[in-house]
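User: I want to check something. If I give you two sequences, will you return the structure for each one separately, not as a complex?

Assistant: Yes, each is folded on its own. Here is the first sequence with its structure:
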Amino acid sequence: MPSKETSLNYTENPSLSYTAVPEDWKGTPQLSDGTYQNLYYPFESSLWEVLKWKLSKNPYSDQKKKDDRTLEIQPMKTFQPNGKDQLIWLGHASFLIHLNGITLITDPVWLDNWVLKRNSELPIDPKELKNIDYILISHDHRDHCDEETIKRITSLNPEVKILAGLNMKPLIQDWTSNSISIEEAGWFQQFNTGSDLKITFVPARHWSRRGLSDTNLRLWGGFYLETAAQSIYFMGDSGYGPHFKLISETLGSPDYALMGVGAFRPEWFMNAAHTNPQDAGKAFIEMKGKHFIPMHFGTFDLSDEPLLEPLDILTQSPKLTDHRLITPILGENLFQNPTP
């Protein structure tokens, strides 16, 4: 329970609306010290646990060294949707999505930086990605929110709008020109798109931090995209919890669920922030989704397991996703029935 010094409050962006909210919804939980809170699980940060993991021997190290597989890729010379809906995986949590004539990119991290090095190629030259309408940023972690990538996209797309969680604007604004619009939302709030495409920020079980003194000062979450024809749930980063079912009960069961399945070992350390393939499948079934698309594996080496082990688990156990798995190929349109 929060102490007297850090009482629990609820917040939102007063300029945004809700199309649907859970029963007795009060808003996004936030302590009086400014830190955001998960819906069902308290966040616990332990430097000792981080050191315990980093200083322990990885039981999968030999297996990782022997496994030199990389993600399957279908190179793209250009991006010209020509009116067709598109759902294209660019690696990790980055997707290129075209719906109802609107083009979006989720969590773009395309360039190596001091923390991350790509183990899979980007299927398209970033210079080809123009006419982008929205950049969706789930949270501030460096494998989801990269300064140089955002600078490149906004320079190529000066009219692009960035959609993110509460208090993300001060971080991102310094990376872009003042003409770039950045809109922040609380959980279950709908962004102002001015079109038939609805984009709602939804809860996740996670946390946020860029430095040493800003833990949970920026809101994390996922996105629920909806048109008259279909819906997409983008998880962002999340551990397993009741919020998955809450989202589907509030907004509907998604036609496509983009679910994180990697960076899950050691599970005693990772399970509060990432779903393993089994829990991702469980959450998907609880949401009553139609198509399961795994992500958050194969691109960055963030944890103990071999990079493609999450996909191995899913393909070898199709019941985990009720036989609704779509095996993702970088650069390929993953929609099963693209809208003409």
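And separately, the second sequence with its own structure:
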Amino acid sequence: MMSIKEHPPQSEESQTGEPMHVPVLLEITLSKLQPVEGESYLDLTAGYGGHARAFLNRTDNYLDSVLVDRDENAIKTLGDLAEKGVTLIHKDFVSAAQDLVKQGRKFDVILADLGVSSPQLDRAERGFSFRFDGPLDMRMDNRTEITAADIVNSYSVDDLTQLIIRYGEENPGRARRIAQAIVKARPIQGTTELADLIKQTVGRGSMKHHPATRTFQALRIEVNRELKLIEELLPLLPRLLNKGGRVGIISFHSLEDRLIKRYFSEQATAGYEAELIVPEKKPVSGTEDVHNPRSRSAKFRYAVKK
């Protein structure tokens, strides 16, 4: 089932004026990962600190904890935690994890929430959403060289088609029609311009979501190398955990969850060679988050270091 991968907005603002978002599956992640006083915490996608503050409130161990995010705007909102001793790392989670492994760092609790935060989506200039007219950017880290506009205006029809099928999970026929329309309409610079073009090309039909949703997802994944980074991260996780340490991952669409499920399944069936124990085969669904109706598409999986 297709769903928009995002966190719901919240009316409050952070200390820097950035809009906050409601942490997805917060109570469930706390319940399953069971942080206790004195434990070290690694948040690989800290965002605006929704999960991190709740976990750190339980552990009260700021000096041994690390928060990672590749979004400079998110890092800026975590200054109060840095003042308490938390280490902030402004990198993608794979680069950060590789650095921490080299340093020999290990943690008792690790969390990775793979959703795009509402503060990212709700800023038109970030170009993530067609709900706001802005440039086709979509970079989670503004140091990344390639933007969505670069892809839209340079990829061939075949490459765009395959991208929209693979990362957008779009119907092949619709994907090719969209790709052909994009190439014909170049140059395309704005989010609304692209969304309107896609709607005019394939129509809405009986779809519940906007017909551009899948294409925007595909572009965002390509710009930020999202699935490739997840694949690179997973085998690093056991090396970052203390014995008995817990790691949890929140995913928002089937492409992500498939990678996580496969890795956890390999661990569960590896016998003596396994590094992780997987307590629950099935993920916890976001439909169990009664406080957050827009987290329905979320899935949470977790494992424990042997």
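Because they were folded independently, the notes below concern the second chain alone. Residues 1-19 have pLDDT under 50 and may be disordered. The radius of gyration is 20 Å.
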